[in-house]
Prior knowledge:
Shape: flat
Helix content: over 70%
Mean pLDDT: 79
Number of helices: 5
Distance between the termini: 11 Å
Low-confidence stretches: 96-103
Order of helices and strands: HHHHH
Amino acid sequence: MMPDAVVLLASLAGFLLLALATERQAKQLLRRLPARGWRWLCRGLGGLLLAVALGLCIAALGTGAGIAQWFGWMCMAALVLVFAFPKWPGQPPAQMMSARKASGAGENKAGELDAPHRLARRWLAVVLLVGVVLGYGVALRGALA
C-alpha cells in the first residue's frame, strides 16, 4: 500500500505552487508580484507534483482505481486550500454585502455575526473538513480491503 499522506501533500504543494504562478493569488499570498521566470517555475513544479501524485496512485492501485483515488485526494487538497487562503496573513478584509444585508439571529446592527456565532461556524467548518478527509480515507481503506 502506498501512503495516502504523500499523495495529499504532493497535491497540496502542487496546488499551492500553481496558485503562486498566477498574478492574483501571488499578490495575495506573497503581497508582491514575483518575477515572470519564478512564476513559470512554480507552474512547472506544480504540474510536476500533481503528475507525481497521479503516478503514485496508479502504481499502487492500477489505472482505474488510481485515477479515482487521485481525483479524490486532489479534491481534498483543493478544499483545504479554499479554506486556508482567505485566512492567510495579510489578506484584505472581506467586502461587505451591499444592499442585501438581513439582520437575523446572531447578527449585530452592522450585519456581522456576533463572536460566539462566528466561532461556532468556524468550528463547524473545521469539524466538517476533517470529517470529510477522515471519512474518505476510511471508506477508501474499506473498499480496498
